[in-house]
Every structure is written in structure tokens, then in C-alpha cells.
Amino acid sequence: MRLYYVDESGNTGLNLDSADQPVHWVVALEFTPEAAKAIQSEMHGLASRFFGARSRDPDFEFHGGDIFQGRGDCSPLGVSARVVLYAELLSLVRRYDCSIFVEGIDKAGLRTYAAGRGEPPVHPHKLAFTYLLERIDEALERAQPDTAPLYGLVVADEQKEMDREIVQRFADWRDVGTRFGHRSRELRYLLDTIHYVPSHDSWLIQLVDCVAYIRGRYDRVLREKGTDEERYSASERAVVRLWRENCGKRVASDACWP
Q1: Buried b vs exposed e over 49-85: b needs ≥16 C-beta within 10 Å?
Q2: How far is the C-alpha of 74 from the C-alpha of 36, rounded, in Å?
Q3: pLDDT per residue over 175-219, tens digit each?
Q4: Do strands 251-257 and 2-9 pair parallel, antiparallel, or not at all (unpaired)?
Q5: In this structure, which of 69, 138, 179, 212 has its CB flanked by the most CB atoms within 10 Å?
Q6: Helix 203-225 crosses helix 79-95 at what angle (to 10 degrees)?
Q7: How far apart are CA 245 and CA 255, in angstroms?
């Protein structure tokens, strides 16, 4: 069994004109049940070490944006402490060999594509989530053992705009295929349905949030500054280092459409 926890970054709904967030990202982390249990324990320890008694409150959670920008519960932490915290969280991905699946929808490209077809644009989250499920199912197909079949279960952060529609369509995607794009496929190795949970109830959703946030920031650095690291600010260098040292080598799929 493989567990796939999913979160997003850069969601502006059907507002496709955001210069600050040009891409809607959906990211999944793949866990074995054993890794999931160990990571949960380590995240609980990190929360206690950095936030003390506050970490035991029901509404406490790690947010990538809050850690990086020093907001909310992270506002008392200095920059160096927040970088250390972020690095320790992302190191869990590397140390437990968690595969990362990334799908992005370029909002300006989507708007142009839809206009060319004379159709209203599809919500970026629906497209990205669909493509993500296709790539996860392909990975499961490649990983099939010679003995018992290997299946996956998908758990996602609540997304009020689209979660009900995605749940309703999930059964169709398993039976007749996703019917999007040139790599549409029947989802043969994903079980049951999409299980939505509030992020504050799941350490693993919070970890995916941190990965998705830093992936979006990493993309922004490359778009604005390219690969010339001499042009990077201190925060941009931190973003690149966090992603490359902890996540880059764990990417199983990374695409941005169109």
C-alpha cells in the first residue's frame, strides 16, 4: 500500500491574471505506512521543540507560508530559526525516501488555450489534480510487484471550491478514464475515493503544504532570476537550497501545463 497526501499552492480560483501567483501547483507526497507513522512522530517532536505547549492546541499546524514569512505562530521566530525549522521539515522527505509528484497549471497559458477554443477555462485545480492522479497511477503501474498488486490511497487537504466535484468524478476516472489531454488513462491502482481532511488534523498534509509552498517559491525564483545565483537575494538562495537539498532528487513527476 502507498499513501498519497496532496495539497496545493498558488490557488487564485478562476482569476487567471495573478502576476504574483502565475501557476496553480498541486503536489503529492508518497508515503509507505511505516514512513507515514515515523514522520508523524518526528513532526510532533519538531512542533513541541519549536512551539512548546502551543503545539498541543487543536488548531496548531505547520504552514509553509507562515514559516517562510514569519507569520502567525512563527512570528516570534527569527529568520535563522525559521530556516532551520523549514529545513528540518523538508529533510523528512529526503530521509524517508518520499517520492514527490508535482503538477502545475500556467494560468495565462490556460486562459489563452481556452480563448482559442472559444470555451470558458476549466478550474486550474481540477486540471492539475486530474493530471496528478494520472501520473500517480502510472507510477503505481511501474512499481507493480510480481506477487500481490500494489495500490494507493489519496488523502487531500480540504478544497471547498472543487473537492465535491473531484470526489464525484473520481469513480468515473477509474471506470472510463480521465479523458483529459494526450495521456488520459483509467485509474487502475487508486482505491476508494479522495479522502479530504482539514490540514490541522494531519501532520502529513502539513508537510505537503510546506513542500508545495517551497516548490512554488522555487519556480518563481527561476522565472524571475533564471539560474544565475549571483542575482539571488538571501531568501531566494534559501529557497533554492531548501528545494534542491531536500526535494529535488525525490521528484518522480514534475510538469507544468500548457
Answers
A1: ebbeeebeeeeebbbbbbbbeeeebbeebeeeebbeb
A2: 25
A3: 777 766 557 788 899 998 899 999 999 999 999 999 999 999 999
A4: unpaired
A5: 212
A6: 110
A7: 20
Q: By residue range, what is the domain housing residue 128?
A: 2-257
Residue with cell 480521465: 178
Instruction: Return the closest-CA partner of residue 7 out of 254, 244, 199.
Output: 199
Grid cell digits, residue 76? 516570534
DSSP symbol at 53: G
Please give the tally of structural domains in the chain: 1
Residue 234 maps to which CATH number?
Answer: 3.30.420.10
Q: Which residues contact 125 (CB under 8 A, 6 or more apart)?
A: 8, 11, 24, 26, 159, 161, 162
Which amino acid is residue 140, in one-letter code? L
* Among 43, 51, 66, residue whose Cα is nearest residue 201: 43
8 Å CB contact between 232 and 213 = no
Of the CA atoms within 13 Å of residue 23, those in its CB half-sphere come to 24
pLDDT tens profile 27-50: 999 999 999 999 999 999 999 999
Residue 155, all three cell numbers: 488523502
Beta bridge partners of 103: 26, 255
Dihedral of the alpha carbons of 9, 213, 94, 229, in degrees to the nearest 10: 130
What pTM did the predictor assign? Answer: 0.94
